[in-house]
Design brief:
Blueprint lengths: L1 H15 L4 H6 L5 H8 L6 H11 L3 H6 L8 E3 L2 H11 L6 E6 L5 E13 L2 E13 L3 H9 L4 E5 L2 H8 L5 H5 L1 E2 L4 E2 L1 H6 L22 H15 L6 H10 L4 H14 L1
Parallel strand pairs: 1-4, 2-5
Antiparallel strand pairs: 2-3, 3-4, 6-7
Helix pairs in contact: 6-7, 8-11
Length: about 260
């Protein structure tokens, strides 16, 4: 049990991104005594795991089982898949939408909103973030424009784009953070364009998967393989995904609300 906790503390240190542990975890509703017990070897509670999943977009498969990349992303296999996923998300109107790109050919979509949850009588405010990446091209950008939704642009260096797409770039590095003693502006403040401004793109890539530059494609595959181990999608997971995609946007929103209440 002590070994498991030591591994968890190493991962917690990775998630900190130079933040101080005490104020960070106390901002999530955990007392100093609970933090001290954690540092002395007490296993993490389910409440702590759920808080990290919500606020940091951390993958519990990575955090608990050491499988996959550190941060959760939604993998789109095509523009149709990406727009389908976005339609379910954007059924609510309070999401801020941003296209992330390194080359104006391939994109990832970052959507976020300010929300909250209750923990032991306290209201914990946080930024909910979803990242859709994979085969996302100008067709998805055009679809977003047709929805009359303000869309920002985040230009990234190729290595940062690869990390975002592969689940190795987290919320704090993306949006930045600030506590009583330190702060980090993050890529968001440095890179984001004015809302509603779509990128200059090559329209020849409208009708199919974008030709991801070879160097970034290889790096993405390597990063995914390093975190994947022997993780494969089960038959049950495949069936659930198929059934989910048959639902209407309203039904999907209802399912997501139920799932969030359970985790």
């Amino acid at each position: 049990m002590q070994m498991i906790n030591n591994d968890f503390l190493l991962k917690l240190d990775f998630l900190l991104q130079k933040r101080d542990m005490f104020p960070w975890l106390m901002s999530l509703g955990f007392t100093q005594g609970m933090v001290n017990r954690l540092k002395k070897g007490q296993p993490p509670s389910g409440e702590l795991l759920r808080a990290l999943q919500r606020t940091e977009r951390v993958s519990l498969r990575w955090l608990i089982d050491d499988l996959g990349p550190p941060y959760s992303i939604t993998r789109a296999v095509s523009d149709a898949d990406a727009t389908e996923q976005l339609a379910a998300l954007l059924d609510a109107n309070d999401w801020d939408i941003t296209l992330a790109t390194a080359d104006s050919v391939g994109f990832a979509v970052v959507v976020h909103r300010d929300t909250q949850y209750k923990y032991r009588g306290k209201v914990i405010a946080y930024r909910q973030v979803e990242v859709i990446a994979g085969r996302v091209t100008v067709a998805t950008a055009s679809w977003l424009a047709e929805q009359a939704r303000g869309t920002g642009l985040l230009r990234l260096e190729p290595e940062d784009m690869t990390r975002l797409e592969s689940g190795h770039l987290g919320n704090m590095e993306l949006f930045g953070w600030q506590d009583a003693r330190k702060q980090s502006p993050g890529l968001w403040l440095n890179r984001r364009s004015a809302p509603g401004q779509l990128p200059q793109i090559n329209p020849t890539h409208n009708n199919g998967p974008y030709p991801m530059p070879q160097e970034r494609s290889e790096a993405l595959i390597v990063n995914e393989d390093q975190g994947r181990h022997n993780c494969t999608q089960s038959t049950e997971e495949t069936e659930l995904l198929h059934e989910y995609r048959q639902l209407t946007p309203g039904q999907r929103s209802a399912i997501r609300a139920v799932l969030r209440s359970m985790i």
